[in-house]
Amino acid sequence: MNVHHLTDDELRRVQMIQLEMLKEVDRICTLCGIHYNIIAGTLLGAVRHKGYIPWDDDADVAFLRNEYEKFRIACKTELDHSRFYFQDHRNTTGYRWGYGKLRRKGTRFLREHQEHMPYEQGIFIDIFPLDPVSDYKFVRTLQNFHCYCIRKAMWAPVGMIASKNRFLKGWYKLLNNIPADVLYGYFNRYVRRLNRKKTRWVRILTFPTPNKEYGYLREWYENSEKILFEDEIFWGIKNFDAYLSFKFGDYMKLPPIEMRKVHPVTELQCL
Predict the structure, then answer these.
(1) pTM (2 decimals)?
(2) I need a labelling partner for 171 at 20 to 30 A (CA). Which of 92, 200, 219, 234 fits?
(3) Residue 82: what pLDDT?
């Protein structure tokens, strides 16, 4: 398939559709008393640009695990199903991520190497659960390797196509032979085991973490404040300076132009 790089106009249309979904998340969470935060590049955009980072093509929302489960369940009854649908590995056959996605009906957004995935792929925002990890860095380091292995097994259907290395391509093909019910059964048990204890550190289990700390402070996600994003109000991390410095370093400094990348797509359909 031909790879397409979004024009500025297309990117802005994608961002505005994602903004609809952020507003829907906020509506459901307000209605149901669920605590969330905009995080990562979305929070950075709110602080540095008062909206989207100009070249950002996704949006990120995070919940501590109990709140994530409340949101997932609330979506069954409270989500505006005429416009949106929620996906995670428990309700979408063939879904290969360890977190959820909220998508817009009537759209298509196929990222390169993911065209063959057997589920609907509309324009989306990422819905991340945060799970406890050890307060001891050595144990977190071991947990990080464990999470890395799980992530690569989940990513195998994409990796065996995307990888240019013959050895890695073969390795992903082997990992892809793990039955999905076995992989996600193991992952679900691991999540339950980690959540038996409340710790100072949490992380998105199947997403990389910065600075070799292999986690984030729970208190960052527990203490939130309202923040302006694209002329709308959302909840974000109150101590954003500590969080953004931890994640991005000098976060107010714009990256070099060659680092301002938009994910290539093979198909885009907006409303």
Answers:
(1) 0.95
(2) 92
(3) 98
Residue with tokens 């009854």: 77
Picking from 136, 106, 137, 139, the residue whose alpha carbon sits closest to that of residue 123 is 106
Q: Which helix (H) or strand (E) holds 248?
A: helix 240-248
216 within domain boundaries: yes
Segments forming the whole domain that contains residue 74:
8-269
The answer to whether residue 51 is domain-embedded is: yes
99-124 pLDDT, tens digit per residue, is: 999 999 999 999 988 988 999 999 99
Query: How many C-alpha atoms does 261 have within 13 Å on its Cβ side?
Result: 5
- What does the pLDDT average to over 29-46? 98
Let me know: does 1 contact 115? Beta carbons within 8 Å: yes
Q: Is residue 130 part of a domain?
A: yes
Q: How many domains does the chain have?
A: 1
pLDDT tens string 210-268? 888 999 999 999 999 999 999 999 999 999 999 999 999 999 999 999 889 888 899 99
